[in-house]
Specification:
Distance between the termini: 28 Å
Oligomer: single chain
CATH superfamily: HUPs
CATH topology: Rossmann fold
Helix content: 25-40%
Shape: globular
Order of helices and strands: EHEHEHEHHE
Strand order of the largest sheet: 3-2-1-4-5
Structural class: alpha/beta
Radius of gyration: 14 Å
């Protein structure tokens, strides 16, 4: 049913749950998995230890590293799993949606972080993706 699955990650613990679910679905469906890391500015990079911002002088290499480490942590052996890492600067939800459109995604998987409290009202990645995506969206319960 799904051929291209996009999952957004910022390297956080909650994102790991969404990535794990997307990996499982990609294996089950024999789909290509697209990991997306989007940041507001070119120097903002989320890191697993707590989401701190660090400089990214390598032009995306640190962002790709975040996604690669996340994939290895949750998927372990990725043999037989077709993956591609995408990075982008801008609103993370917009980066995820833009990537999904570019790759012809059938499904976007995002974590539920931000769906409660003030962030829900002000806007959150899962809320924005769910309302703007041109394909199915699965919001993984991560909080």
């Amino acid at each position: 049913m799904f051929k291209n699955i996009v999952v957004g990650t910022d390297g956080s613990e909650t994102a790991a749950a969404a990535v794990a679910l997307a990996v499982s679905l990609a294996r089950e469906q024999e789909a290509k998995l697209h990991l997306v890391v989007g940041v507001h500015t070119a120097t903002a990079v989320a890191v697993p230890a707590g989401g701190a911002n660090v400089s990214d002088p390598l032009g995306g290499a640190a962002l790709r590293g975040v996604a690669q480490r996340m994939l290895e942590e949750v998927a372990g052996d990725v043999k037989g799993l077709e993956t591609e890492i995408h990075t982008g600067v801008g609103d993370p939800a917009e980066v995820i949606i833009r990537t999904a459109d570019e790759v012809g995604a059938d499904l976007i998987v995002v974590g539920s972080k931000g769906l409660r409290g003030t962030r829900r009202i002000l806007g959150s990645v899962p809320n924005s993706v769910a309302h703007k995506a041109g394909c199915h969206v699965l919001i993984a319960r991560t909080t």
